[in-house]
Amino acid sequence: MMIIYGFILSFILVLVDQISKYVIFNTIGLNNPIPVIDNVFQLRGVFNTGAAFSILDEHSFILVIISIVAFLAITYFMKDCNFKRRPLYSIALILIYSGTIGNMIDRIFNSYKVFDFIEVLFMDFAIFNIADSYLTIGVILLAIYLLFFEAKDPISLKFNKEEVFGKKNKVEEEINE
Q1: Helices vs strands, H then E, count in the chain
Q2: pLDDT one-digit tens code per residue, 115-161
Q3: Alpha helices in 29-129 (DSSP H)
Q4: What is the set of active-site residues?
Q5: More exposed terminus of the chain, fewer Cβ within 10 Å: N or C?
Q6: Distance from C-alpha of 146 to C-alpha of 153, rounded to nearest angstrom
Q7: What is the β-pairing status of strands 41-48 and 114-120?
């Protein structure tokens, strides 16, 4: 049942991302900066054919393939969503999943381009969108989970033991005989 909540939450997050891109594109268009907080950030619509910081800018089709593979892989891991037992892991996974889908939709329906519109002014930083924020926050939360919580997670410990030793290892079988 938890996986259903995960997919519903992800759907809502993707909807927020896509609606924000639609509204910004249709109200301010491209390269028409609108200050939100002076010298802090503004809205300015641009299309990005690369990944973060325009990585792989010349290879947009490869990014579509990477997005699809990531989507399929994360869809598989969504089975592990459990907000009661693993809230940090579940939230991280949903954010990464939602960000992947949001930008994948753009790439597929916008000729391999992603619409970005949040521009930070107080430092030299790439223009980004809400899906990028989901991805960034999700990866940070996943790293925190993996570094500080996974080793203590009874689900992960059980999984790892069974993965390495099987349900019963030979020593356990000999002791039981």
Answers
A1: 6, 3
A2: 999 999 999 888 999 999 999 999 999 999 999 987 776 555 444 44
A3: 60-77, 87-109
A4: 116, 132
A5: C
A6: 10
A7: antiparallel
